[in-house]
Amino acid sequence: MKLRKEEQRRIEEDESLLQKDVSSPGSLLEFYVKKSLRIFMAEIFKQEGLDISQVTNYTYVDENGTFGEKGDIYEVDILKRDGTTYLIDVRPYAYPKDVSRFNHTCYVVSKVLNLEKPVKMMIVNVTTRRSLERANYLGIRLIYGELVKI
Which pTM value belongs to this model? Predict the structure, then answer.
């Protein structure tokens, strides 16, 4: 059976990560969480009609402390499609403080890159009702796999 280039690349990437990450049971668990999150994210992008291959990572270091503490790092994934800019955060879980932090990151990146009204999107495996309420209040689209009570 012949594998497509993308499938082959994923297999090689997984093997590489697995070789690095099996030093402890916790690392092995983290490997599988990351892998399942990538699969989940790819499925969400497919459902949303977005092309995951067009996502780029952007990092801004606030050297002067303009937006927070001096040296704060703001990192976000960016996707541009049909004149719309998506600011995306992908993580295994989201608590209200994670939602607030992402909102601040979106504010900073929007100022630095001069973006007007980007779509703020968080993709998470697990979240809470309070996180979902916070995201709705802040105008963040929170896509999740499971909603848990805490």
Answer: 0.74
